[in-house]
């Protein structure tokens, strides 16, 4: 067993890491599922974001989502640890999904410390930050204890904001706790939400989509130093590109992580959502 294979990295499909990129980096993606009527689609495998968002507005009933079973995680962990490797597995906030709990149940079948399961307390590209940190450190030969510590500490410095194009999907999906004050359907107001302490919370209401994008950029620019930056979008590549260009003077364009919001997360946010994930640099 080489040093570089001593720690393997797992996350779930709500990290919105494209399959091709995950394969290239050596990250194992465990898919959640989207249920559309009687059909079940594995997130990012059986249905792409573009296909999903084309179908979503015409669906009679809003899709539902389901997390992988403990058995699904158990199989993945068995395969990854068969050569004696350790596993670090980071997942969508436990307050938004049962995915983390099912991964933790599976991890109990292994010797203590062999499989480390981390509640990211966030979603989408912000989960990906931890996966990228873990794989970079694993490839550099760091041990599991150091990697787990860095991943957990990094999530504490991570913040997600998103402009919601329509509140309809958050309302229908029940992910709208404390959001009643938002009147997003009135007067072209575009709500900005945040994921704070693992839950979706209101942040601001901005009049017009263009001003909302500018506000997202301001939230990045006000940070003293940003270590990682993600731009996430649900079927709005133009808005993501515009936001990236606005931020290029303060963060290298080549280092920005720009990704599609996948079907599971998109079921709750709806098309047109644009988000930013910020991982602040550690304070010395």
Protein model, in words:
The chain has 284 residues and is an alpha/beta fold. The protein is 35% helix and 26% strand. It has 10 helices and 13 strands. A 6-stranded mixed beta sheet has the order 10-9-8-13-11-12, with helices on both faces. Strand 6, helix 4 and strand 7 form a beta-alpha-beta unit. Helix 3 packs across helix 4, helix 5 runs antiparallel to helix 6 and helix 8 runs parallel beside helix 9. It is globular and about 55 Å long. The model has no long low-confidence stretch (mean pLDDT 91).
Bulk shape: globular
Q: Looking at the chains present, what oligomeric state does this protein adopt?
A: single chain
Helix content: 25-40%
Stretches where pLDDT is under 50 for at least 5 consecutive residues are none
**How far is the first residue's CA from the last residue's CA?**
36 Å
What is the radius of gyration?
18 Å
The largest pleated sheet is described as: 6 strands, mixed
Q: Spell out the helices and strands N to C.
A: EHEEEHEHEHEHHEHEEHEHEHE
Q: Please identify the structural class as seen in this structure.
A: alpha/beta
Please count the beta strands (DSSP E, at least 2 residues each).
Answer: 13
Q: Count of helical segments? A: 10
């Amino acid at each position: 067993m080489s040093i570089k294979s001593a720690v393997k990295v797992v996350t779930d499909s709500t990290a919105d890491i494209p399959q091709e990129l995950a394969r290239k980096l050596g990250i194992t993606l465990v898919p959640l599922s989207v249920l559309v009527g009687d059909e079940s689609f594995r997130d990012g495998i059986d249905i792409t974001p573009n296909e999903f968002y084309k179908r979503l507005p015409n669906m009679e009933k809003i899709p539902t989502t389901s997390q992988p079973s403990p058995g699904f995680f158990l199989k993945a962990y068995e395969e990854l640890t068969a050569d004696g490797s350790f596993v670090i597995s980071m997942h969508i906030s436990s307050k938004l999904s049962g995915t983390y709990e099912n991964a933790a149940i599976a991890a109990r079948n292994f010797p203590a410390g062999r499989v480390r399961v981390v509640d990211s307390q966030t979603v989408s590209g912000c989960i990906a930050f931890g996966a990228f940190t873990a794989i970079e450190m694993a490839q550099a030969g760091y041990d599991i204890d150091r990697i787990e510590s860095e991943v957990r500490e990094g999530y504490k410095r991570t913040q997600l904001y998103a402009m919601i194009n329509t509140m309809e999907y958050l309302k229908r999906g029940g992910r709208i706790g404390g959001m009643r004050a938002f009147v997003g359907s009135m007067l072209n107001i575009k709500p900005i939400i945040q994921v704070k302490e693992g839950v979706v919370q209101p942040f601001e209401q901005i009049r017009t989509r263009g001003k909302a994008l500018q506000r997202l950029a301001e939230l990045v620019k006000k940070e003293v130093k940003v270590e990682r930056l993600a731009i996430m979008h649900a079927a709005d590549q133009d808005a993501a590109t515009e936001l990236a260009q606005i931020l290029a003077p303060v963060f290298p364009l080549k280092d920005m992580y720009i990704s599609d919001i996948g079907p599971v997360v998109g079921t709750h946010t709806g098309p047109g959502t644009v988000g930013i994930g910020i991982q602040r640099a550690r304070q010395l």
